[in-house]
């Protein structure tokens, strides 16, 4: 009898579990049945999805339906909470990782033919002997002439690192067969880093990816070898990225254990990020360039340097993104980038601009800056949407609506004529730059650096060639305004440098014309 008393509870438990298991199997064939052990009701969204799946008159793509449902839900949140479908996730992550897998070339499509326009030094294609101007005929036996576009050629050339791609090229009228072993191709954050003069350096950051701090440190160390005493840090058009990279860079400019930024949200406790190490450039003079496209991590960096009176901010009011996102991988291979906190500058500023009027109004906010005259005059009634703060040196800074610069530089509103605009909308200008370079390769080879090209290349003859080239494409540049001609000559100069030395060359030449860079240099001279 005692044995029965011991085993009886265990026996009841086994019977109960078996019964639940059998009942669960039966319920799978009964839509929306409810039972004694239902402990969690499906959400309304899931109920609707299930009903559509088993009752709707036509077949539907469940993945597409789910994506649309998620997008609709996020539409009620802030503008920076995003759903990333599985098919786009790899591409999105590449930019944050700072690299992708491929062969390391830039290409250009001209008259249905794919040309190599630039070869990454030391990359897979460089090692395989590819040269600027090579024409692609086949990739892995697939013909890549004729009906080809950028997306198609990317699919042909990209692939896992270590895999091989067989390429047939046309070079100087002769076929060349080569095999390229794909590798990891860097997506550089530092577009340019060079000495403007004997003591002044310049660095342009285009984003904050997983390699940004490492690239920045390498650039700074190289500049310091050349007597760096003053620095222009260009964050224009930098839309942000990884917060930690911006924090690490701020640490190189700020001393002691100064607060760089702190974050806080409804479900996230206050977290402070402070300086942790001696910085490379804690004392030298510093100007930070910003504009309306400088956002997120760029604003964290600029805000910290402004709050501590460490840098002069030059340019125009920044975008105004003071929200922090975390990315969560979902079961179907997609991802959710969800806003989890706000960030605050050392003085306690949150610079997030309002988004309570919907996403459309949020997107048009930059257009409103043009409409109310802010982009021309700097200050306006709409500029300062948040409270004012005072730095230790007495400068007034503002929360809400971005980082307001200490020195304003107006947006150049002079518009191109219709004919000049046609050069860019039809890609006639970019085709000309490549063609002109290939035709005069021997001439351009005498310039060993972008600095030499900036001083020694007169684009007048190239402009005359552009006029003739454009005419063949039904674009008449004969009677365009003098200002258009001047701007086009400057662009020929800068984009020729880009053709030869990529973005490093572009900035080194273009900055000789750039009004904001000139203003930054004036600030450093005072």
Helices and strands in order:
Blueprint: H1 2-27, H2 44-55, H3 62-74, E1 82-84, H4 86-97, E2 99-102, E3 105-110, E4 113-119, H5 124-127, E5 135-139, E6 142-143, H6 150-157, E7 164-171, E8 174-181, E9 183-186, E10 190-195, E11 200-205, H7 212-224, E12 230-234, H8 243-251, E13 259-265, E14 268-274, E15 285-290, H9 297-307, E16 312-315, E17 323-329, E18 335-344, H10 359-363, H11 365-371, H12 374-377, E19 388-390, E20 396-398, E21 407-408, H13 418-425, H14 428-439, H15 441-444, H16 450-456, H17 460-472, H18 482-510, H19 515-525
Parallel strand pairs: 11-12, 12-15, 15-16, 16-21
Antiparallel strand pairs: 1-18, 2-9, 3-4, 4-5, 5-6, 5-7, 7-8, 10-11, 13-14, 13-18, 17-18, 19-20
Commentary on this structure:
The protein has four domains: 60 residues, no CATH class; 88 residues, Pdz3 Domain, CATH 2.30.42.10; 221 residues, Alpha-Beta Complex (2-enoyl-CoA Hydratase, Chain A, domain 1); 107 residues, no CATH class. It is of the alpha+beta class. About 6% of the residues have low confidence. Strands 3, 4, 5, 6, 7 and 8 form a six-stranded antiparallel sheet that branches. Strands 10-11-12-15-16-21 form a six-stranded mixed sheet, with helices on both faces. Strands 1, 13, 14, 17 and 18 form a five-stranded antiparallel sheet that branches. The protein contains 19 helices and 21 strands.
């Amino acid at each position: 009898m005692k044995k029965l008393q011991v085993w009886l509870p265990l026996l009841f438990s086994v019977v109960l579990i078996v019964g639940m298991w059998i009942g669960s199997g039966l319920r799978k064939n009964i839509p929306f049945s409810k039972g004694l052990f239902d402990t969690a009701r499906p959400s309304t969204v899931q109920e609707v999805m299930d009903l559509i799946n088993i009752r709707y008159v036509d077949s539907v793509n469940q993945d597409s339906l789910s994506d649309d449902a998620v997008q609709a839900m996020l539409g009620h949140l802030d503008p920076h909470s995003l759903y990333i479908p599985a098919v786009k996730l790899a591409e999105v992550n590449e930019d944050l990782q700072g690299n992708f897998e491929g062969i390391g070339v830039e290409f250009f499509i001209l008259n249905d033919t794919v040309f190599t326009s630039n070869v990454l030094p030391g990359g897979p294609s460089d090692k395989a002997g590819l040269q600027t101007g090579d024409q692609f005929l086949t990739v892995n036996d697939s013909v890549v002439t004729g009906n080809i576009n950028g997306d198609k050629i990317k699919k042909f050339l990209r692939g896992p690192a270590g895999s091989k791609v067989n390429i047939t090229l046309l070079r100087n009228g002769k076929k060349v067969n080569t095999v390229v072993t794909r590798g990891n191709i860097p997506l550089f954050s530092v577009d340019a880093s060079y000495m403007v003069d004997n003591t002044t350096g310049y660095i342009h950051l285009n984003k904050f990816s997983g390699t940004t701090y490492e690239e920045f440190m390498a650039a700074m160390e190289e500049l310091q070898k050349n007597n760096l005493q003053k620095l222009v840090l260009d964050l224009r058009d930098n839309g942000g990225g990884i917060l930690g990279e911006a924090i690490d860079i701020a640490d190189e400019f700020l001393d002691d254990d100064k607060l760089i930024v702190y974050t806080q949200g409804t479900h996230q406790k206050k977290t402070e990020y402070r300086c942790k190490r001696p910085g490379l450039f804690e004392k030298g003079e510093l100007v930070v360039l910003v504009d309306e496209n400088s956002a997120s991590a760029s604003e964290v960096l600029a805000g910290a340097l402004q709050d501590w009176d460490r840098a002069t901010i030059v340019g125009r009011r920044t975008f105004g993104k003071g929200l922090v996102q975390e990315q969560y991988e979902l079961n179907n291979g997609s991802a959710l980038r969800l806003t989890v906190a706000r960030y605050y500058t050392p003085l306690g500023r949150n610079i997030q601009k309002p988004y309570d009027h919907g996403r459309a109004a949020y997107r048009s906010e930059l257009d409103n800056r043009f409409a109310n005259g802010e982009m021309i005059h700097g200050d306006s009634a709409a500029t300062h949407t948040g409270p004012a703060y005072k730095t230790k040196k007495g400068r007034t800074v503002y929360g809400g609506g971005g980082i307001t610069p200490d020195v304003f530089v107006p947006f150049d509103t002079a518009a191109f004529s219709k004919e000049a605009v046609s050069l860019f909308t039809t890609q006639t200008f970019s085709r000309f730059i490549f063609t002109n370079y290939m035709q005069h390769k021997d001439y351009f080879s005498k310039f060993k650096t972008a600095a030499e090209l900036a001083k020694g290349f007169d684009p007048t003859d190239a402009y005359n060639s552009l006029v003739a080239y454009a005419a063949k494409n039904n674009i008449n540049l004969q009677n365009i305004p003098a200002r258009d001609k001047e701007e086009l000559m400057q662009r020929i100069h800068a984009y020729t440098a880009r053709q030869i030395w990529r973005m490093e060359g572009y900035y080194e030449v273009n900055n000789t014309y750039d009004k904001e860079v000139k203003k930054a240099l004036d600030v450093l001279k005072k």
